[in-house]
Amino acid sequence: MNWAGLYTVLSGVNRHSTAIGRIWLSVIFIFRIMVLVVAAESVWGDEKSAFTCNTQQPGCNSVCYDHFFPISHIRLWALQLILVTTPALLVAMHVAYQQHQEKKLLVLTGHADPKHMEEVKKHKMRIAGSLWWTYVFSVVFRLLFEAVFMYIFYMLYPGYQMVRLVKCEAYPCPNTVDCFISRPTEKTIFTVFMLVTSSVCIVLNMAELVYLVVRACVRRSQHNSNPSSGKSSFYGHKLSSEYKQNEINQLLTEQDSSLKDMLRRNPGLQEKGDRCSAC
Amino acid sequence: MDWGALHTILGGVNKHSTSIGKIWLTVLFIFRIMILVVAAERVWGDEQDDFICNTLQPGCKNVCYDHFFPISHIRLWALQLIFVSTPALLVAMHVAYRRHEKKRQFRKGDEKCEFKDIEEIRRQRFRIEGTLWWTYTSSIFFRLVFEAVFMYAFYFMYDGFQMPRLMKCNAWPCPNTVDCFVSRPTEKTVFTIFMIAVSSICILLNVAELCYLLTKFFLRKSRKAGNSKHHPNHENKEETKQNEMNELISDSCQNTVIGFTS
């Protein structure tokens, strides 16, 4: 499991995202993960071996490195990218669940041939109903993770600049020793780059959130102004067909569970029902 | 996620490019990305380890290296290649959007849709005209801009494209002016010149493609203007008739469906 594996997992989510969501995913993979893998990892590759302190005291080097770099930038970014991309899996799970429900409905209504099953798997789910809530939560979590990591970064490495020299006096260093960091300018450049792309992703996520909320409000106001769907237009019919499908699904599952409850509570009910149908 | 994944993503764009665009993509992947990965990265691999300064002062080497190489050539090229290949994704997104619209039309059962099945839509190659022309031209323009910016950044940072053997450094904590020796300077110069040359070829290809697209656009426009001037009655009569027929059919299609639903 590596970044390529994550890419495979997440490109499936791509299909059910909004346009902004797809742009966000492209920015994440090309400008963050790819830059991390092909460029940034080699810049930080020798961060410990080339961290030199002006002393011969054994252990001073290691202690000072550990003091100034509790967690390396590279590892922080890797964690950030994994946590930020994972909420999209909530959406993937919800979509899989909905597809499963549709397949069950097809089986119930007797359309269980392979062609229809394939159709269910292939068609794009609309972001409406409970899927909308899942999607919105995933975007909110993404935003949250991005913000938290940006803050952690700022707290651990105040000002995003990498200094050339740090003064260290942790034991066993004899006095205050000068320690020199390797490639500070290159590291600063990449830190700023990753910061900028992170901000771009935050802006994209906020835009997506606003878009989803506005769309939902518009849809709700349209629904309120046209409560009767009997004489709906061609497009209204098309748009609400998935809604109707979802409602049918819910009715079927409710009917299923309520029937079971009823039978459990009144075992004699079935016979009564049979007798009544005969009248 | 590495260069191979980028190749997969961009390979799809290839189908909707012009011939010059396809050549450009090939040059990019074979002469730049592949050379970067199989050769250049090894040459620059030991750039800091073998950067030797004539001093025992701890920290002097680090500071001098950082002073002379604010960002390594390899990283600059990697960033340049990522930025230069990304505008092609604009075209890929536009094509995907058009394909999605055609699929929607097809699913609605539109008579106007000339495709037999979804697979044909997926395989269809879109012509570079209309809004796609603008997207494509903007992507080439951005490519040119990025290439030029990076070439300039290179020249600005490294004062010409040659790698010197010896650099004199007197940044603190170096005690005096010390001599620092770069590892493999000639090999680095050779690869730098190679990458610059290929970058210039790519710039030329992009300029040629831009000229080609503009020429095609103006020719098409003048042809249309010429036709309407010389044959006002003909006026692509067949096409206008076809368009009217299409509109009538699509209107009747909609009315039929509305009739069914109500």
UniProtKB/TrEMBL annotation, chain A:
All copies of domain Connexin N-terminal, residue ranges: 42-75
Report the superkingdom from the record. Eukaryota
Protein's job: One gap junction consists of a cluster of closely packed pairs of transmembrane channels, the connexons, through which materials of low MW diffuse from one cell to a neighboring cell.
Q: Cellular location of this protein?
A: Cell junction, Gap junction; Cell membrane
Q: How does it assemble?
A: A connexon is composed of a hexamer of connexins.
Q: Which SMART domains match?
A: CNX, Connexin_CCC
**Which intervals hold domain Connexin cysteine-rich?**
145-212
Q: What name has this protein been given in UniProt?
A: Gap junction protein
What is the similarity comment for this entry?
Answer: Belongs to the connexin family. Beta-type (group I) subfamily.
- Per the UniProt entry, what species is this protein from, by scientific name? Urocolius indicus
Automatic annotation (TrEMBL), chain B:
Per UniProt, what is the membrane topology?
Multi-pass membrane protein
- GO molecular function terms noted in the UniProt entry: gap junction channel activity
Output the GO biological process annotations, alphabetical, semicolon-separated. Answer: cell-cell signaling; gap junction-mediated intercellular transport; sensory perception of sound
Locations of Basic and acidic residues compositional bias?
233-244
- Ranges for the region named Disordered are 225-245
* Connexin N-terminal domain boundaries: 42-75
InterPro entries reported for this sequence: Connexin, Connexin_CCC, Connexin_CS, Connexin_N, Connexin_N_sf
Could you tell me which PROSITE patterns the record lists for this protein? CONNEXINS_1, CONNEXINS_2
Transcription regulation listed as a keyword: no
Can you supply one Gene Ontology CC term for this chain's record?
Answer: connexin complex
Per UniProt, residues of the Connexin cysteine-rich domain are: 146-213
Q: Which UniProt keywords apply?
A: Cell junction, Cell membrane, Gap junction, Hearing, Membrane, Transmembrane, Transmembrane helix
Q: Which residues form a coiled coil?
A: none
> What subcellular compartments does it reside in?
Cell junction, Gap junction; Cell membrane
Among its keywords, does the record have RNA-binding?
no
Membrane spanning segments where? 23-40, 77-97, 132-158, 191-214
Q: What does this protein do?
A: One gap junction consists of a cluster of closely packed pairs of transmembrane channels, the connexons, through which materials of low MW diffuse from one cell to a neighboring cell.
**PANTHER family in alphabetical order:** CONNEXIN, GAP JUNCTION BETA-2 PROTEIN
Question: Subunit details for this protein?
Answer: A connexon is composed of a hexamer of connexins.
As for family, the record states: Belongs to the connexin family.
What name appears for this protein in its UniProt entry?
Gap junction protein
Gene that produces this protein? Gjb6_1
